Amino acid sequence: MVVSEIQHGKLQDTQLSVALLDAKQPCAGATGAGQGYIWLAHRDPASPSWPLARRSKATWQQLAAAAGSSKLGTAMEWQENGSLLLATSADEVAQLQARAAMLQQQGVPGVVLLSPRELKMAEPALKLPTGSHGLLVKSDAQINGKQTAFAMLEDCQQLAAAAAGGSASQPSRLLLGLQEPVVGLQPLGGGAGVEITTQKRRVRARQGVVVAAGVWSGQLLAAATGQQGWQQLLQPRRGHLLEMQPPAGMPRIHTGMMELSYTQHYSSSSEQSHGTAAGNSSSSSSSSNEAVDITFTATTSASGSLLIGSSREFSGWEALPDAAIITAIMQRASCFLPHLSGISAQQLMATTRVGLRPFAVGGLPSVGRVPGLPGVAVAAGHEGSGLCLGPATAELVLHQLLGLALAAAAATAGGGEAGGGVTATELLAAAKELAPERRLAAMAAASR
Ligand SMILES: Cc1cc2nc3c(=O)[nH]c(=O)nc-3n(C[C@H](O)[C@H](O)[C@H](O)COP(=O)(O)OP(=O)(O)OC[C@H]3O[C@@H](n4cnc5c(N)ncnc54)[C@H](O)[C@@H]3O)c2cc1C
């Protein structure tokens, strides 16, 4: 996803030529599995990723509006269907109230606390313990990440073809190398650019290279820089997401939803504590002994499928569906949506999506120039937020590597704010925390 955004922005806004090199094909990684939540509800305003999320969400919204009913617009399946966090105990209800106040204070539109009765009326499919509450954020949205990535690539191919004007002698502005793993990156010195070696050829990038290879970026950068810390920084965190037709008689789910405990993955304190656990391990095998985390999420896709999630585990580099995990997700989901009970893992194996989230020790992505590799930037480590954070990540990388201007935040005709109200200065301040040398140093400090 991140690479699609970068590619899209770069071809659209400049006269540069772009080479997109992928070990497999677009969406072979985590992007093919993502649920597509473009949410603020579960995030922590104290995290440096907050301004990226706000700005990205606004960019997605503008992109969807501009794309309209074009092929890209249709593929995006942009739905402003809102988000719903579910609190099922007195302690969680108190947390939910505090979160509602925090989001309102941040100026997030459409934040509403739902009483048990209002919750039941909003989502009749839910069956929750007495006293459960919901936090509805009406302005949260979702996309179809996989379709969006493919449609963006198609847009770029069309732009490149148009620029070549159908002339065979005119070199295309887009070189697409699929099934072509990058195996080496070598700065050439003297302003000559960077040489990229793939299993098939060498490509010279005069202006710069962005390594946006998800969790695999760690291996690539460790080999290119000789700094093994890159392999420790980025870790595969496998996730399952189940896709199915809603069972007969089940009321439609209107909002995207998740249980409140999901927010633990996005708190600033979690960013610190995960760091120590995963940072101690090697990158080629299971990176910690953490048990599989199953947290209930559910939404309806634009085409009417139910998307039910999800799992999180450090279990190595395998990205195949596991029947035991599918069963555990369904058991958890049935506690919230009883119509789902009785559906077996075997019925869901073929439509289950599995991806390796690019977990970064410290909980923050690395975005910016790579120390020791002139002309090379990285954009990786977005864990469970790469679809949401893609647009601001792309903006930052293109600014840092190519000097492209960051748009100022300004009021839009629709009454919203371009950039979600996040100014270029605020985005650059957040970027300091995401700088690769900062992320590597934070990891080293946490594992001491
Ligand atoms: C179950 C699940 C649910 C999720 N839900 C959400 C959600 O609701 N909202 C959200 O924002 N995010 C969500 N995510 C997270 C999101 O999908 C990821 O953060 C995002 O897709 C990461 O994108 P990426 O481009 O960095 O990496 P990837 O999508 O993993 O792409 C990496 C690419 O690099 C290629 N590659 C690997 N090695 C090389 C090499 N040597 N040379 C060239 N290419 C290489 C791969 O083939 C792949 O195509 C979810 C993830 C999962 C697994």
What do these coordinates show?
With 448 residues, the chain is α+β, with helices and mostly antiparallel strands. Among the domains are: 240 residues, 3-Layer(bba) Sandwich (FAD/NAD(P)-binding domain), CATH 3.50.50; 45 residues, no CATH class. It is 36% helix and 20% strand. Strand 8 and strand 9 form a beta hairpin. It binds flavin-adenine dinucleotide (FAD). The site of flavin-adenine dinucleotide has 38 residues, from helix 1, strand 12, strand 15, strand 16 and helix 12.
Task: List the main descriptive attributes of the protein structure presented here.
448 residues; alpha+beta; FAD/NAD(P)-binding domain; three-stranded antiparallel beta sheet; globular; binds flavin-adenine dinucleotide; oxidoreductase; FAD-dep_OxRdtase
Structural class: alpha+beta
CATH architect. name of the domain at 2-70 and 145-231 and 363-446: 3-Layer(bba) Sandwich
What proportion strand? 15-25%
Largest sheet, in brief, is: 8 strands, mixed
Separation, N- and C-terminal Cα atoms? 33 Å
Number of strands: 18
User: Would you identify the CATH H-level superfamily of the domain at 2-70 and 145-231 and 363-446?
Assistant: FAD/NAD(P)-binding domain
CATH class designation of the domain at 2-70 and 145-231 and 363-446: Alpha Beta
Instruction: Please work out how many helical segments DSSP would assign.
Output: 14
Q: What share of residues is helical?
A: 25-40%
- Uncertain segments: 270-289
Ligands: flavin-adenine dinucleotide
Mean pLDDT: 89
The spatial strand order of the largest sheet comes to 4-5-3-13-14-15-12-16
Cα-atom Rg, whole angstroms? 22 Å
By CATH, the topology of the domain at 2-70 and 145-231 and 363-446 is: FAD/NAD(P)-binding domain
Shape: globular
Keywords: Oxidoreductase
Domain FAD dependent oxidoreductase: 15-397
Organism: Tetradesmus obliquus (Green alga)
Biased composition (Polar residues): 264-280
